[in-house]
Amino acid sequence: MTEIEVLEISREAIFTLLKIVTPILSVALFVGLIIGIFQALTQIQEMTLAFVPKIISVFVALILLFPFMLSQMRTLTEGLFSRITTGG
Predict the structure, then answer these.
(1) What residues contact 13, with CB distance under 8 A and at least 6 apart?
(2) 72, 70, 76, 61: which is closest to 29 by C-alpha?
(3) How far apart are CA 67 and CA 84, in angstroms?
(4) Angstrom distance (rounded) from CA 13 to CA 77
(5) What is the domain count for the chain?
(6) What's the CA gap between 3 and 68, in Å, rounded?
(7) How large is the angle between the packed helices 47-86 and 3-42, nearest 10 degrees?
């Protein structure tokens, strides 16, 4: 295995990681922004008001996006296994 192949595998793994994580982080960012604006407008500074909706929204996003995440991971894994069986 050459250095170029190792860099290519690393690049594919990082790109797959970004494709998997970006939707979940976007949901958490959007919900946090909405809750932050709500707290600023109403001057309610309750920690659970910011924490609980984000946890619930991320959990729902994980459930809804799990098939997409699984297919991305499966594609990466099958590519790695095919490289292993062909010897590079």
Answers:
(1) 76
(2) 61
(3) 25
(4) 9
(5) 1
(6) 30
(7) 170
List all residues 6 or more positions away from 57 whose beta carbon is below 8 Å from its beta carbon: 27, 28, 31
User: pTM of the prediction?
Assistant: 0.80
Structure tokens, 26: 């976007």
Q: Which domain holds residue 8?
A: 3-86
Q: Which two tokens stand for residue 46?
A: 């309750």
Amino acid 27: pLDDT: 96
Q: How many degrees, rounded to 5, is the angle at CA 30 between CA 25 and CA 34?
A: 150
Name residues of the chain where pLDDT drops below 50.
Answer: none
Computed from CA positions of residues 74, 76, 80, 83, in that sequence, does the dihedral angle turn out positive or negative? positive
Round the CA-based radius of gyration of the chain to a whole number and report it. 19
